Structure prediction request, 184 residues.
Amino acid sequence: QDGKEIVAPKYIYAYDFSGGIAIVARGKWTIDPKWDNAYAKGKYWRESERWGGIDRKGREVIPCVFDEIRFVFAEGVYAAHYGGWATGRWGIIDQRGEWLAAPMFEDIGVDYHDGLFTFFTQDQCSAPEDLPMGIYDIKTQRVLFEPQFYCVNFRMDGRIEVEVFDAAQGKCVWKTIDRNGDEV
Prediction:
């Protein structure tokens, strides 16, 4: 706040601090005609990037080794892609970059509560509009529900609101279930 530089400009992206950590990306901006298209020519592009996190003193507390880190979960819990875009997967890391859920998911949703998060068997961006999601439990390190829900809301009381297709009614309906899948 007094204008003194704390972190030297060595990142190509940096998000705001939250919980004492800022998600950052190392990489290199290049101008390369191979990236030119009808909408942009001669622009700067990033050839590669590696994501991590820094503390307020600029120390890398999450190593810059991830393909991407999504800052979408609870404080200190992040979705991270690892292993390259062609063959890598999404998992969940903590504020030190340690795996809470190994990188085994094609994509991860934004829903998270008390160790539960949603996942997909395909990339959401390239999949059909109504891609079902499953639920994974970090605490037990297992899939609670295979992909079958079209929307999920984790409630503060531990219950889970899910949207499912009801064949008898021929439409999607909402149900409230517990972690065992029993309707409440």
Notes: The chain has no helices and 15 strands.
